[in-house]
Write a structure and sequence with these properties.
The complex is a heterodimer of chains A (248) and B (174). Chain A contains 9 helices and 5 strands, in the order αβαβααβααβααβα. With 248 residues, chain A is of the alpha/beta class. Chain A has one domain: Rossmann fold. In chain A, strands 2-3-1-4-5 form a 5-stranded parallel beta sheet, sandwiched between helices. In chain A, 41% of the residues are buried. Chain B has a single domain, classed as Rossmann fold. A two-stranded parallel sheet of chain B has the order 1-2. The chains are: A alpha/beta (248), B mainly alpha (174).
Chain lengths: 248, 174
C-alpha cells in the first residue's frame, strides 16, 4: 500500500526503531502532537524472555531507587486499561492471527506511552518498564512478521536511556520455569503448532526467541546482564549500572 | 469499548482501526480475492490516511502502518464539498458521532461546528491522497443516478480490461 518504491523503503527503515537514535528521543517519526524535546525523567527498560526473573529485579530496583529518593513509575507489557481486556480475550479465544496480535500489542503500548510513560517522564520520574518494544519485536519476528515493518511501526516509541537485557540459556530457563509456575501455552509458542508436546515446543520457541533478542542486542545497545546468577548478584549489577547512570 | 469512555488518543485510535482492518483483510477480503471474487470495500486504508493525519498522526507513519494491505485494483473517491456533507448528515440524523465529528480534538464544543472543521481538514487530506495514489474521483454532489452511471462506467472499464488481460481458460476435463 505504500506509494514508495523499494529504494525509498530503505530510507523509511532509518525512520523506524533502531539504535542510531539519541536515548530519550523518539526512535522514528514519533508522535507529532506530543513533542518530547526535553524532560527530566529517565526511561529504563528491563528486557528478557518469559520466566527470566524480570519482575523480581524490577521490584528490588524500585525499592532501592525510592529509598534513594527517586520517584518511580512502573509499567509493563499489555497492562493498559484500554487494551488489556481485549488482549486477554483474544488470547483465550484464539481468533486472532499474528498480524492482528502485533497491532493489538502496539495499541496497548501506544496507550501506555501516551498516558503513563510520557507524563511520568515529563514529571521527572524514573520509569521502570517490565519489557519494552523488544519483546514485541522478538515475538513477532519469530512468527515471521516483517522485521523492517515492525521497526517502522514502533517508530513512535521512545528510545530508553538504559535497556537491560537479562540473558539466560534455554536449559537454565527450563529449570526455572518448571520449578516455579510451569510452562504456559503462549510462552511455549504453542500457537506456532510445532507439535503437541509442550516441553519440545517451549524449548524450540524459547530458543528462537533468545536468538531474536540476541540479534537485537547490538542494534539497540542492550546492556547484557547474565541472568543465570543469583537474584542478589543480578540486582547488584543493575544497581551499580543504574546508579552510575543517574549519579555519575 | 474505548470509544464510549472518550479515552482514545489519535495514536490508539489509528492503531485500533488498523487492527480491525487487518482482521477484516485477513478474514473477509483476502479469501474471496483468492477465490476469484470481486470485493467491494466501503472505505479502505485511504480513510485512515485522511482521518488519522487530520488527528495529528504522522503522515508517512500511517502509510507504512498499512503497508500490509492489498493494493486495490480500483479506488473510487466520492468527493463532496464540506457544506453538502454537513447538510446531508443533518438531514439524515439527529446526532453526530463523537469521533466522526472530531470532538476528541476539542476544536469546538459544538458538534456541527466541530464536524465542519474536522471533516473539512479530512477532505483536504483526501485531495492529497487522490494525487498520491491516483484515485478515481466521483463527483458526489450529483444525483444518485448520475453517480451510479459514473461508477458503473469506471467499474465496467476496469473489469473489461481485466477480462482482456486474462487468459481464457480452455475447457479441460475435471
Amino acid at each position: 500500500m505504500s506509494s514508495q518504491s523499494d529504494s525509498q523503503h530503505e530510507s523509511a527503515l532509518v525512520d523506524g526503531a533502531n539504535g542510531g537514535i539519541q536515548p530519550g528521543g523518539y526512535y522514528g517519526r514519533g508522535i507529532p502532537y506530543l513533542p518530547i524535546n526535553s524532560y527530566p525523567g529517565k526511561l529504563i527498560a528491563i528486557e528478557g524472555t518469559d520466566g527470566v526473573g524480570r519482575s523480581t529485579q524490577i521490584q528490588l530496583l524500585r525499592e532501592w531507587l525510592e529509598v534513594k529518593g527517586y520517584g518511580v513509575v512502573e509499567t509493563g507489557w499489555t497492562r493498559s486499561p484500554l487494551m488489556q481486556p481485549t488482549i486477554e480475550l483474544a488470547k483465550s479465544s484464539n481468533t486472532l492471527n499474528k498480524l492482528t496480535f502485533v497491532l493489538l500489542y502496539a495499541t496497548d503500548f501506544a496507550d501506555r506511552l501516551e498516558k503513563e510513560i510520557i507524563p511520568a517522564l515529563k514529571a521527572g520520574f524514573v520509569v521502570l518498564t517490565d519489557r519494552y518494544i523488544f519483546t514485541a519485536l522478538a515475538r513477532a519476528g519469530v512468527r515471521g512478521v516483517d522485521r523492517a515493518w515492525l521497526r517502522t511501526l514502533y517508530g513512535f516509541a521512545i528510545a530508553p536511556h538504559l535497556v537491560f537485557y537479562l540473558k539466560i540459556d534455554v536449559e537454565t530457563l527450563i529449570g526455572r520455569v518448571l520449578e516455579s509456575r510451569g510452562m504456559d501455552f503462549w510462552e511455549s509458542g504453542m500457537d506456532l503448532k510445532h507439535g503437541d508436546d509442550i516441553y519440545d515446543s517451549f524449548r524450540a520457541y524459547q530458543n528462537k526467541l533468545l536468538r531474536e533478542y540476541g540479534s537485537m542486542a547490538d542494534e539497540f545497545h542492550f546492556r547484557v546482564v547474565d541472568a543465570r546468577r543469583s537474584i542478589v548478584h543480578i540486582q547488584d549489577e543493575l544497581r551499580r549500572q543504574v546508579g552510575g547512570f543517574l549519579e555519575p | 469499548m474505548g470509544k464510549k469512555k472518550n479515552a482514545l488518543t489519535p495514536m490508539t485510535f489509528s492503531l485500533l482501526h488498523a487492527t480491525d482492518f487487518a482482521d477484516r483483510l485477513l478474514y473477509k477480503i483476502i479469501p474471496p480475492l483468492k477465490a476469484g471474487m470481486i470485493v467491494l470495500a466501503d472505505r479502505y486504508a485511504y480513510t485512515a490516511f485522511a482521518r488519522d493525519v487530520t488527528r495529528g498522526v504522522d503522515r508517512q507513519w500511517v502509510r507504512e502502518l498499512y503497508s500490509f494491505a492489498v493494493k486495490p485494483d480500483l479506488v473510487m473517491y466520492f468527493r463532496v464539498p464540506i457544506d453538502v456533507s454537513v447538510d446531508r448528515l443533518l438531514a439524515r440524523r439527529v446526532k453526530l458521532k463523537f469521533y466522526e465529528a472530531g470532538m476528541d480534538l476539542g476544536w469546538s464544543s459544538n458538534p456541527v461546528e466541530s464536524f465542519r472543521l474536522f471533516q473539512g481538514k479530512v477532505l483536504e487530506e483526501y485531495d492529497r491522497i487522490v494525487d498520491e495514489y491516483g484515485l478515481g474521483v466521483v463527483d458526489a454532489v450529483g444525483s444518485i443516478t448520475q453517480q451510479q452511471r459514473v461508477v458503473r462506467e469506471l467499474v465496467a472499464n476496469h473489469v473489461k480490461s481485466v477480462d482482456a488481460a486474462r487468459e481464457i481458460p480452455s475447457e479441460q476435463p475435471v
